[in-house]
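Usage

Read records sequentially. Each one opens with the input sequence:
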Amino acid sequence: MGTVVYSICLTALHYGLGSCIEDQGVFYPEVLRDLAGIPDTKRIMIAIAMGYPDPDFPANRLKSSRVPVDEITTWVGFE
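and closes with the structure output:
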């Protein structure tokens, strides 16, 4: 499943589309079923939102501070 989702997102990127792997389709399946015409006989496992990215949208320019990886990781066998 993960490989299929990864491949879909990577292919979308190749064609200039952005993607976001989401679980909202699982949490609200009745909405997704209604909008996409998915019958009740099909099980929804994951949803992928796709569209053209807008680099000027403020949320897409957000930079969050993060702890350096070496502060939270113990490297074993990689010296």
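Summary fields computed downstream for this record:
- Helices lie at 2-14, 24-27, 29-36, 69-72.
- The longest strand covers residues 18-22.
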